[in-house]
Specification:
The chain has 421 residues and is of the alpha+beta class. It has two domains: 5-155, Chloramphenicol Acetyltransferase (2-Layer Sandwich); 194-419, 2-Layer Sandwich (Chloramphenicol Acetyltransferase). The protein is 33% helix and 23% strand. It has 13 helices and 16 strands. The strands form three sheets. Strands 8, 9, 10, 11, 12, 14, 15 and 16 form an eight-stranded mixed sheet that branches. A five-stranded mixed sheet has the order 5-6-7-2-13, covered by helices on one side. Strand 5, helix 3 and strand 6 (99-104) form a beta-alpha-beta unit. Helix 7 (216-235) crosses helix 9. The radius of gyration is 21 Å and the shape is globular.
Length: 421
């Protein structure tokens, strides 16, 4: 029997091409429950979700002209968490399934290779998986709301669409940008990733953002930017300094009323040039707010989408074998993909839960990996009144984390620090 296959969405096309021997684009989302996880029931929940989420139970295959995704014969087996988050996902693993499910004590975690989805789509899978597990464990009926889908329903075709192709403008919006400052650091031996988590009362963080007249995402980006500006100033003379820019992924589903569970986000790089002067935190908040407002419009984003979609629609490029496309795509990514920002801050925002599900959940977490050429990344999610900020790095020094969380404390935001070492 032939298996169902699916072409990669526009954002996913780059990920198989740029993966390296010790790096690929994998992220983790997890939920911490109030009682220990039963792995047998978790495995059953994973299996029962398979018909409802056909775009997640896929493996990566290489065709003649493009990589593509093919349905797996059976769902992945749940595993006890055995190491640090985001261990390298091998080509062999991706050939079995591009997601993996872990449990550890009272935590359920799912790691996704980015070809499947982005953080927004993956969160719907995690919520639905958790809801089904809780139903099996406690007999509680959890309604299909707040991002939980009804697993008895057939998949909606809109959930499977490539929304980049649907919402691309007729004309591309080309926007050349200057390269950003690159954080230095001595790399860890091996592939170990250091993780520092700041656990924060969400209301304290929201109140601080309100005091600066901005959103939580902008406040965090401004604090991060101020720390990086200080670090660059200590390391380089003014004439050699580069722009400090914070890369912020933008979920496009709300902007374009999309229901896709596949990738549908673009990044924006608000920043400042330190050669033009110094900046207070309030000035950074104001500048980042205005830059994001100017960039995140349907018209601007549709033009950005068109810029990315144009090469995929090129009739000549379609006929180039994947073995020749891959080195070209990798070279383009090396030249542009990671030069435009100092660090990512990926914020999934406030995640609401169905009332029947909320009492069983303590908190949620979101962890993105480091990029290939720069060593630090930051991801944020809020649930149950708790904001978790995960800062991950592949270098030894914790200087950026120390400055960042210390600055939040100086703003009157209490922070509890956790680390995997």
């Amino acid at each position: 029997m032939s298996r169902i296959w699916m072409p990669l969405d526009n954002a996913a096309l780059i990920f198989p091409a740029i993966r390296r021997r010790n790096w690929n684009n994998v992220f983790r989302e997890s939920v911490t429950l109030r009682e220990e996880v039963d792995p047998v029931l978790l495995q059953r929940a994973v299996e029962e979700l398979m018909p409802r989420f056909p775009s997640f139970y896929l493996r990566l295959k290489q065709g003649v002209f493009w990589y593509y995704l093919e349905e797996v014969a059976s769902p992945p087996r749940v595993q006890e968490d055995y190491a640090y988050p985001l261990t390298f996902m091998t080509k062999r693993e991706m050939g079995r399934c591009c997601l993996r499910v872990f449990y550890f004590r009272n935590r359920i975690a799912v790691e996704f290779f980015h070809v499947l989805s982005d953080g927004g789509g993956a969160m719907i899978y995690l919520k639905t998986l958790t809801a089904r597990y809780l139903s099996l464990r406690y007999g509680v009926e959890i309604p299909a709301e707040e991002g939980v889908l009804d697993i008895r329903e057939a998949p909606d075709p809109q959930e499977l669409e490539d929304s980049f192709q649907k919402h691309a403008a007729d004309h591309a919006a080309y926007c050349p940008e200057a390269p950003a400052y690159r954080l230095p650091g001595k790399r860890e031996l091996g592939a170990f990733l250091r993780l520092v988590t700041g656990v924060i009362d969400a209301e304290s963080l929201r109140a601080a953002a309100h005091a600066y007249g901005c959103t939580v995402t902008v406040l965090l980006a401004a604090v991060m930017g101020s720390c990086i500006l200080e670090m660059q100033d200590e390391q380089l003379p003014p004439k050699r300094q580069k722009q400090v820019k914070i890369t912020i992924p933008v979920d496009l589903r709300r902007l374009f009323h999309s229901r896709t569970l596949r990738n549908f986000s673009l990044t924006v790089n608000p920043g400042v040039d330190p050669r033009l002067g110094t900046y207070t935190l309030r000035e950074l908040c104001a500048m980042f707010t205005h830059q994001l407002a100017a960039e995140i419009t349907p018209q601007r984003m549709a033009g950005r989408i068109a810029e990315n979609v144009e090469p995929q629609r090129n009739w000549l490029l379609k006929r180039v074998p994947v073995c020749l496309k891959t080195p070209v795509m990798r070279a383009v990514y090396n030249r542009r993909g990671e030069r435009l920002g100092c660090i990512n801050i990926s914020n999934l925002g406030v995640q609401k839960l169905p009332a029947a599900m909320a009492p069983y959940v303590q908190r949620m977490e979101f962890i993105i990996g480091v990029q290939y050429s720069y060593p630090n990344n930051c991801s944020v999610v809020t649930a149950k009144g708790v904001t978790t900020i995960n800062m991950i790095r592949s270098t030894e020094s914790a200087e950026l984390e120390r400055r960042f969380f210390s600055r939040l404390v100086e703003l009157g935001i209490p922070v509890t620090i956790e680390t995997n070492r």
